[in-house]
Amino acid sequence: MSIKDNILYFDEQLRNTPCRLVAVTKTHPIETIQEAYNAGHRLFGENKVQELVDKRDKLPHDIAWHLIGHLQTNKVKQIAQFIDTIQSVDSLKLLVEINKRAEQFNRTLPVKCMLQISIADEETKYGMTTDEVEALLQSEEYRQMKYIQITGVMGIATNTENEQKLRGEFCYLRECFDHLKEKFFIANDDFKEISMGMTSDWKLALQEGSTMIRVGSGIFGSRNYNR
Ligand SMILES: *Cc1c(COP(=O)(O)O)cnc(C)c1O
Asked: What domains does the chain contain, in order, with CATH numbers?
């Protein structure tokens, strides 16, 4: 299937659901991404700052870019002017820096941020515990931020084919979302996103309440990291 066909396939699959597709473009060249753009897609994700900045420069500017990989504080300034959403916020320190840089750029729209929660058992994966998330949301620093809009939570599940395990992790993230919603965002309609599910497990994630699936190889084919 062509990239256009793949985009249309996901459009069809997600029709009448509250879930949207983040097309993950890492390692793929501009021409490939342009095909998805030409098929009407406008929501793209990258996991590295440098690659994101390079691609953003070369593609139309009505794309909503989501950063989905770990973000170091010293790189925030490179994306703070244009980024739509940072899905991988995993510390208060990082959020402070995003707010500061967004203010320096005098952004008219806040930076949408999602709180990454660790749901997998692999220690290498970034993300906060729910206790850390609560401490962040209760902090005076967070309350003072004017350039941040928290839109939801994000999680990366264990790399496994074990359906039971995946369901358990997705279910846990949804419960975290529900808890945070009730405790901190009950009257705030902006807090609505649960980003979970990738090429191999998006159907399960959707069943467990995902509002944003992040699909790379399922649209663009397998990745060649040596390109
Ligand atoms: C690469 C990546 C994806 C997409 O992975 P696929 O298996 O190619 O769909 C999703 N989320 C994150 C955080 C990623 O880094």
From this structure: 3-220 (3.20.20.10)
Max CA separation in the chain (angstroms): 51
What tens-digit pLDDT sequence spans the chain (227 residues)? 899 999 999 999 999 999 999 999 999 999 999 999 999 999 999 999 999 999 999 999 999 999 999 999 999 999 999 999 999 999 999 999 999 999 999 999 999 999 999 999 876 668 999 999 999 999 999 999 999 999 999 999 999 999 999 999 999 999 999 999 999 999 999 999 999 999 999 999 999 999 999 999 999 998 877 65
Ligand 1 probe mutation, 21, 47, 126, most atoms within 8 A of CB: 47
**Hey, which of 198, 217, 220 would you mutate to test ligand 1's pocket, going by the most ligand atoms within 8 Å of its Cβ?**
198
Q: Which atom of ligand 1 is nearest to the CA of 87?
A: 13
Q: Coil, strand, or helix at residue 176?
A: helix
Q: 120 is written with which tokens?
A: 């997998």
CA distance 215 to 44: 9
Atom of ligand 1 nearest to the CA of 199: 9
Any atom of ligand 1 within 6 Å of the Cβ of 218: yes
d(CA 136, CA 132): 6
